[in-house]
Write a structure and sequence with these properties.
The protein is 33% helix and 14% strand. With 499 residues, it is α/β, with parallel strands linked by helices. It folds into 2 domains: 43 residues; 314 residues, Alkaline Phosphatase, subunit A (3-Layer(aba) Sandwich). The chain is globular. Strands 1, 2, 3, 4, 5, 6, 7, 8 and 9 form a 9-stranded mixed sheet that branches. Helix 1 crosses helix 2.
Length: 499
């Protein structure tokens, strides 16, 4: 307004009756007698006073974020990971159909929950190796189930062990991955109850004067969903179809294949939800046992899933390792540190599982390895809000050229070589088709049903360029590893193709 000259009649500058009379009497004289520069100054002054009054007398000054780098130095660390756990089947992520996850919800609410955390591969060994190294699967070399860590690779247990930590790992999956850096290590092959007992026994016996790292990985909601017991029958009584919590009932859906109708899918959801509820009970038992033993004081707890589950939503596929979609790549993730991180905070930005290692090491004040693909999330923990723009998130697909990238609400599945993956044991050819380019607007199409690639070539080019730039120059440790025959059979029994 300052550059427009005197205001028109009726504007707020001409409310005084005497002044209005003068304007009516001699408008030309008024215009000639007022210096335009004076008018501009008056207008600026009025605007300044209005803006000043809008601030309010009691408006608090912005609160400085509490620095968290090194704030958890010497604290214990508990890493609890659950296999095949979809974020959208937890109450903490808005699921309301069934009360699936009271214990996990409570744990997530005790710290910061990440609303949009992405796995780097919808397969257990590559994904968990990314958690432990902060590297994409091509960077750590465990790019397939059955592969092992390179001997010279820095990992979370090695780094914390060197910093004086006691280290113990109790796993239900990923047993033979050349794990190193653990004082105690045991793997049950899918028996979560046994892993919980071993973990609690170990935690009871640690030296209370030294910090510890405890990793527990639960079989969780992994197919054939036996952690649900008979819960599906109670949730969905009267079902007479082909599905049940056994591989011999689930595998034929993909290998024969067998088409499922809406009633079958309803029961599949019940089978999965029952397994989620079983996983929640087991997770709650572990956390309560650690609390009763006094092992949660001065303790950072990381909760995450390795991947989700398809549940017949794409390509008539039930499981996960074939998938490139959000049903399997979007995972629950939370971090708590009582007294350091406020409870109940949410981070809406996209993050990656490779971000966990640098974040944790920053919190603990432990030096990070020189080679890191992930970024520290410390700034999100210090000030969790939606003001910063997300960085893109990426996933890989074994040793192939298939990648995905998620930027804001746009998701690209990039398969430049037109590969038809072999990812289901004994399945017919082309059992999981992936187009060369699949583009989805997740804000309108969260189920990734409408491929917009042909309509949005510029966006496809932009996102494929992000993939190329992200992986250009990164060290690649992918090499063919010999998977022992016995391990191949074990992997096949879990529904995996051992490459």
């Amino acid at each position: 307004m300052a550059g427009r000259g005197p205001a028109r009649k009726g504007s707020f500058l001409y409310r005084d009756p005497g002044w209005e009379g003068k304007v009516r009497a001699d408008r030309a004289t008024i215009r000639s007698s007022i210096d335009p520069m004076t008018t501009r100054r008056l207008l600026l002054l009025v605007l300044f006073l209005i803006l000043l009054s809008c601030r309010g007398k009691d408006a608090p000054a912005p609160k400085a974020a509490k620095p968290l780098t090194g704030a958890a130095k010497g604290w214990n660390v508990i890493l609890l990971t659950v296999d095949t756990l979809r974020a959208d089947r937890l109450g903490a992520y808005g699921y309301k159909a069934r009360p699936n996850s009271p214990n996990v919800d409570s744990q997530l609410a005790s710290g910061v929950t990440f609303d949009n955390a992405m796995s780097q591969r919808a397969s257990t060994w590559p994904s968990l190796a990314s958690v432990l190294t902060g590297l994409y699967p091509s960077g750590h070399g465990v790019n397939e189930n059955g592969y092992g860590f390179p001997d010279d690779l820095p990992t979370l247990p090695k780094l914390l062990h060197a910093a004086g930590y006691q280290t113990g790992a109790f796993l239900s999956n990923m047993c033979q991955a050349n794990h190193q850096g653990w004082d105690a290590f045991a793997c049950s092959g899918g028996q979560d109850g046994k892993d919980i007992r071993r973990a609690l026994e170990w935690a009871h016996g640690v030296d209370p004067h030294r910090p510890f790292l405890l990793w527990v990985h639960l079989f969780g909601a992994h197919p054939p969903y036996y952690n649900g017991g008979d819960g599906a029958e109670k949730m969905d009584p009267g079902y007479q179809g082909p599905l049940g919590p056994r591989k011999k009932l689930l595998d034929p859906v993909m290998t024969k294949p067998i088409a499922l109708d809406a009633r079958d899918v309803q029961h599949l959801d019940a089978l999965y939800d029952a397994a989620v509820q079983g996983s929640d009970r087991i997770s709650g038992a572990l956390l309560q046992g650690l609390k009763d033993a006094g092992r949660l004081d001065r303790t950072v707890i990381l909760f995450a899933a390795d991947h989700g589950e398809e549940l017949y939503q794409h390509n008539r596929y039930l499981y996960h390792s074939c998938s490139v979609y959000q049903t399997t790549l979007h995972v629950p993730l939370g971090l708590s540190a009582p007294g350091l991180i406020p409870a109940g905070a949410r981070v809406p930005q996209i993050v990656e599982l490779i971000d966990l290692l640098p974040t944790l090491l920053d919190l603990l004040g432990v030096a990070k390895p020189a080679e890191q693909h992930g970024k520290s999330l410390i700034s999100y923990l210090e000030q969790p809000d939606g003001r910063r723009r997300s960085l893109p998130a990426f996933s890989e697909y074994g040793s192939s050229t298939i990648h995905t990238v998620l930027q804001d609400n746009w998701k690209l599945v990039h398969n430049p070589d037109g590969i038809s993956p072999v990812c289901i044991p004994d399945a017919p050819p082309n059992h999981y088709p992936i187009a060369k380019e699949e583009l989805y607007d997740l804000s309108r199409d969260p189920g990734e049903k409408e491929n917009l690639a042909a309509r949005e070539p510029a966006r496809v080019a932009e996102l494929s360029g992000l993939i190329q730039r992200r992986f250009a120059g990164l060290r690649n440790r992918v090499r063919q590893q010999k998977v022992p025959e016995k391990l191949q059979e074990e992997l096949k029994s879990l529904g995996y193709v051992a490459h």
